[in-house]
Structure of Polyhydroxyalkanoic acid system family protein:
Amino acid sequence: MPKPVVVTIPHQLGREEAKRRLQGGMGQVRSQLAGVGASVEDHWSENQMRFEVAVLAQTIGGRIDIQDDLVRLEVDLPWVLAMLAEKITGRIAKQGTLMLTKG
């Protein structure tokens, strides 16, 4: 059973600008992950993105909910990766913050 990891990133951008920046940043994430043989699929519905990342015979799924003053990211880690949850959480928070701070 997947272990959910939740990361919240506060922002002062407003919902629409945060969404625009995250949508733009997904291209960079896709390029970075392609370099290690991963594939990324994302689907937007209003202010929520659902995604799946396939890498090393593992699939990682999750959701990003964009609110007026924060972004909530929930990632379902397979049990193999759940042992690395603390390190993964820090990296997710760092990447999300970079995506929101760069216009």
The longest helix spans residues 15-34. Residues 3-101 form a domain with the Alpha-D-Glucose-1,6-Bisphosphate; Chain A, domain 4 fold (CATH 3.30.530.20). The chain has three helices and five strands.
